[in-house]
Amino acid sequence: MKRLLLLLLSIGFALPLEAQPENRPKNLILMIADGCGPASITMARDYARAVLGRKALALDAIQVGAVRTASASSRVTDSAAGATAYACGIKTYNGALAVDTAGQPVATLLEAAKAQGMAVGLVATSRITHATPAAFAAHVPQRAMESEIALQMLAQGIEVLLGGGWDYFLPPAEGGRRTDGRNLLREAEQQGYHIVRHRAALRQPLRPPVLGLFAQDHLPYEIDRDTTQIPSLAEMTQLAIELLRQHPKGFFLMVEGSRIDHAGHANDAAAHVRDVLAYDEAVAVALDFAQKDGQTLVVSVADHETGGLSLGRNVDGQGIYAWHPEVLARVRASYERLLPALRDAAANQEAVLRELAGIDSLTALERALLDQAAGDPAALQAALTEIIGRRAVVGWTSNGHTAVDVNLYAYGPGATSLVGSFENDELGRRLAALMGFDLQTLTQQLRQKLVGQSH
């Protein structure tokens, strides 16, 4: 029987949850690498080996399977529907957050953890009201409703919220974009939250609840991050675990490497690989805690792939059997810095590329690409992508998402229940079952409560 079990696990067969011999996890750390496909992981590993001298990623030791990412409305999901699948165990339409295809609210893993008396936290490098974190703490028909999402997040009583995006917590007169005039940071402080706006504040003694917002919008890409002002994803993960770990009934924590996705949309390979590596460092923090704790399940997954990344590509009509991480290592800024600098220095673009992209001199073809893009921001971005891509032998097929399966990783109690290939909503249901969460009953209660409020 034991040999049969090992054989089944080795070929990717996942046993029913009730057949698992492991104990139920006390804590769940769900990590989501937004927009990170299998090629992104390979890129980060190759870069780490060639440039940083590392042999492997923290993720490499815990890979258990793959996830299929289609939403209810498309084979290519968006982040809202993708995150809802993990948060609620259902497929919904693109743009929806923790509601079903009829627009009805569905309970989330975070809400189920709160219902069981656990502590909860959300960490992201995007605005904290962006699609992925929002799917765990708000119920809205469209992800763009970030002012409403901020209100619902604070109403949840979440112990730790760390990320960017004070925009949706403040009115315009105070540097935000809320149209209702409310200052949610002041209201959160009145609820007992410690409000943190700078990295230096993390060195002070903190107790939950904590609301840390370190930028008006998204946090900077890792390649651009001011390490004196903005915490890394690993640092925020470490703080969240420290704040939540003492809770006697355990905790649920969702950590998102959000800007991996944004760099994929921009086809910005140098920013993309740095953010994947920053995410892997956060995974290492979670794994270090889980290994010492022995009661924590760490799961890492992506909601979808972004950009259609390839390592190796055609150059001048010929397939090149290589790719060069060292080209990306010489790039010292994301497109968010590079493109404005190129536009502002139209007469001296070579100097900008030398300083920020590590390109000492342009070929005649590269110069022609830049000249043809003059005055057209989209064409300039495409030209820069082609110049860096040709040199690194890296390609992209899209400025959007793709339908590629994404890698699944797990470590800790219950990890063997996640071996295999699953639909994204099935992964959400498996996580709920492993934690003993009854999402169906909680959903019924949630809907009854809303009906009661409407009368």
Report on this structure.
- The protein has 455 residues and is an alpha/beta fold.
- The chain folds into two domains: 7-308 and 399-449, Alkaline Phosphatase, subunit A (3-Layer(aba) Sandwich), CATH 3.40.720; 310-395, Diphtheria Toxin Repressor, domain 2 (Orthogonal Bundle), CATH 1.10.60.
- Helix content is 41%, strand content 15%.
- The strands form four sheets. The chain has a ten-stranded mixed sheet with strand order 5-6-4-3-7-1-8-15-2-16, with helices on both faces. Strands 9-14 form a two-stranded antiparallel sheet. The chain has a two-stranded antiparallel ribbon with strand order 10-13.
Short description:
This is Alkaline phosphatase. The chain is α/β, with parallel strands linked by helices. The protein has helices at 2-10, 38-52, 79-88, 109-115, 131-137, 146-155, 184-190, 233-244, 259-266, 269-293, 325-329, 335-344, 349-356, 364-372, 377-392, 424-435, 439-454; strands at residues 27-33, 63-68, 119-127, 160-164, 194-196, 210-213, 251-257, 296-301, 305-306, 310-311, 314-315, 318-319, 394-395, 401-402, 406-411, 420-423.
List the helices and strands and how they pair.
Layout: H1 2-10, E1 27-33, H2 38-52, E2 63-68, H3 79-88, H4 109-115, E3 119-127, H5 131-137, H6 146-155, E4 160-164, H7 184-190, E5 194-196, E6 210-213, H8 233-244, E7 251-257, H9 259-266, H10 269-293, E8 296-301, E9 305-306, E10 310-311, E11 314-315, E12 318-319, H11 325-329, H12 335-344, H13 349-356, H14 364-372, H15 377-392, E13 394-395, E14 401-402, E15 406-411, E16 420-423, H16 424-435, H17 439-454
Parallel strand pairs: 1-7, 1-8, 2-16, 3-4, 3-7, 4-6, 5-6
Antiparallel strand pairs: 2-15, 8-15, 9-14, 10-13, 11-12
Helix pairs in contact: 2-10, 3-5, 3-16, 8-10, 9-10, 12-13, 12-15, 14-15
